[in-house]
């Protein structure tokens, strides 16, 4: 293989009928740009960086399209989104456009004092938006993530498009982004195990209470949830059936250490999170590649669609196997309440399929993996509804007042009706407090003269959702009722950061999972998670983190966006926090995701840049007290955001809906 | 039967399991409000008006819902529309909100001089929006109709939502509107005959040329089209296959004379249009009824959805037969070019089905007639594309620059790709002039390096589409090419008003249709149509129309909205026009449609009022020079607008997408 680092253009004689012209481009801080040329085979990159994301270059180079063609392409994608319901309120999307510069610094600065309670006022959005990740969070404050940042600019003047009958498309990437096929499968295969883990943890109020006791001392929100748990644990059980709708979020971790440990492809040898070492440092240099895909020679037919500059068929990537350079998925968190975007995410895959197939961006016999999230989530709800066994009862979606992401929710409502003839109604916690009643005998939950079979929460995860004691009373009323809760209080608490951290060792998992192989599989996707409690060697890790802040993320127990701290903010926070305040936080090793070029389309405008992605795997779980009735992976969600070159970009993400392109 | 005209509330002991409470309401100018009460049967109205629309009351009373429930209902309907792609650019919808007061009078006033040429500058919209109707046109300048009015306010400040990535829902009625089932079937059954008629007329350049000669003298646009016809008729035929996508538009005519002639239900005895008499006068009094449907007794289950005030199951209307009071459909016109709303209209029916089924507004086993328009239109195009027989070729949609109704068009593009893997591209006539070429040998049309199999016009029907000679050259280029035209120039001309009028007699139809029964069926849906040419007894009818202007509509040969004249405007125009100017117009007996209460939802806001509806029946036709390959009715479109109490409300219509509820 001849390597010519100075070569500006690389011809890939790909194995399909297409030719690609790749132009390696050095990105901002990247220094390594060597790219290989081979006469007949596929090109391989030789990169002088410790972190290697060259697998992208070998597999699925997101096309770079000429400007004139790009216009037509964006127009087509946007119109597909607008006609197929990938929509949001314009206010939210426009707010997100400002979020990166405006909110990131402000929110991280105000967080620094560590007083999580009051800060979470910025987290009006969805928990996925609030999800802290090991790296700069894709979900955090982002497009796909909801309104963490939108909440803070809701009152901003000049919106002009706030009429609720007006929508714009949710931000999306123009092309799907590469995810190693084996990793996608691995995460899907793991999901039933995580579903079951959450279930078992939720059934141990003692474990939850003891694990969360210290955090509850400094975090009123956790304390409130715990008190509900205690209340209902002491009472007679009203409902044996539980419905779990979860989403486990992952990011790819391009860990240089993988090159030595991951000798084969099955992912078993990946170093456990706790063993992640210095090689994963956030300031490592990535080899950045951009590819410009030129027009195929014979023009005309089926190739370009609107202008005379077009793109080529990419090779079918299915037959590629992961290599030692393949980055591995690492779990950011599991959302056990209000996991969103099952609706919009599913349709985004259809949009990508449309764009990719129509313009021959992929070989014809390769379809993007179908996204079954919407169908599966609705199916799970309908099944729980049938188990309640009252034909006239409804599913109640617990919503935030003024929800910006209601169209994602409407998809569930429409699907439930059109496929199952099950009605879904929407109620805020305040409305539930005001209007809902329990009947004395059966503890059936009645709202507005309708019996509630399933209470599905798309609110209630943030302190903002409980402005007064009334909303807590509403939550308790639901919890005490015979309605099937999704989630119940145990599931909610099982998804908190402190519990995540407490479950990050073999010993902890062994309390709930008997199969050591499953435990080992779970551990393989964990990053290092550390307690900050002085009773759990917290002082030592705090010292390390203050010395090497770039290796960690500081996450509050609190759900809600924009509260994760990185770099100097993390350093400062850990320095000033009291021991008690620290106990309401955890530390996580920072994920260093590989970057890939793509276009993010927001409000009809495309911006090309390096992005990082976060993959969500939905899980649906139904059980009663004697058996598991349903336990499955239920589709996926990919969200991507422009990678911030400032590695302290806390919650700066302006995420966009994406689809995985398996490579 | 006991009749109590003063009764405020009528209990209908309906034959299904529901109860309805009807509250008759006298409308603005209506004076007759008598309503009957029967103890056991259905209520029948005794109305002291010459025109009788009491069939509505007997069949499908559009529900009147309580305000609190209405809010939830509108929210649900609007969100369904927004997630399912019943969308438009907000500018258009907002413009329409102003249209009624602003444009109607201005446009009719400026039209009065009869100089059709310059006035049509107001008709940037779709021909369906421009379609003159026998009454105040539903399509005219309306929502469903496109941008006749929007064009005139495009530059209006304060839009604020003109970003093309922002959409709002197209205006729609909250409930479907009643159409006699037998009439719907009749119009569908007639469609293949009209398809064939248009085809035969299009194949007679001599007939078209002689019929339009006089109109062309004062109408440059018609002259231009005719000259293209002459040019291509003299040349060798490049393409034997023709594709027709038409939409015949109808309104119900509540003609008092029907009461005597329509003794049975089959519609055959309906007085022919030419025989319509004074009893159809436009100032007749309609009995207006509104019905408030109260909540069913046993509440809770499956009945209401969001508040404790709800509505009841309506009786299944399928078993009702039309009676002597049933109004009959009368043809407004047939659109042979750019018949729109196949996309949005189809989805509107799904939205109505959702709202109606979810809230039990209809019996469970009654589905609204499926609207196959989008599927059938795409199927027709795909079939024509296959007949062209070049795998790499595309379908070219000829579009207006800055089209406001592009989402309706996108539905076709998406459907063609997802179902047939046929590509559709969009080109303006200017682009075609600039970039398109014919190859010398085969006369294949190439645009931007792609061969065009089918040229489908969604532009080109209005003089506005030809700002310079370039666009005419582009049109001619297409016409001369081997591409299958939809429509070709003959089809286009066969859809003009003058041709419509010329075909309104038995003798004229007999030139093209051999079956006398078919001719009789066609005549039964025609209103009286009159030439204004001095050579065709025009002077006599002009005199009558000036004396009784309320009985007629004056329609210019010109396609394009807002040019039909009524009442005093008509009177004034006919008085000042020269004979030559009159020859570019026709007169039509005015249709007097029955009114029914409904809600029109525009930009998220619902307005209840009396509406009139216009039913479109799509037709798809494919033939070569030896045989008919496809000839069918292809779905429907119902558009409704608030009935203007000013019976001179020219093109004042703010139409909304509706669905027929067969009664």
UniProtKB/TrEMBL annotation, chains A, B:
Top-tier EC class: ligase
Recorded metabolic or biological pathway in which this protein acts: Sulfur metabolism; glutathione biosynthesis; glutathione from L-cysteine and L-glutamate: step 2/2
GO molecular function, one term: glutathione binding
Region called Disordered, residue ranges: 117-151, 272-329
Segments of skewed composition (Polar residues): 301-312
Enzyme Commission no: 6.3.2.3
Residues reported to bind Mg(2+): 333, 335, 559
Pfam families documented for this protein: GSH_synth_ATP (PF03917), GSH_synthase (PF03199)
UniProt cofactor note: Binds 1 Mg(2+) ion per subunit.
PANTHER family: GLUTATHIONE SYNTHETASE
Family: Belongs to the eukaryotic GSH synthase family.
Subunit organization: Homodimer.
Protein name: glutathione synthase
Species annotation: Capsaspora owczarzaki (strain ATCC 30864)
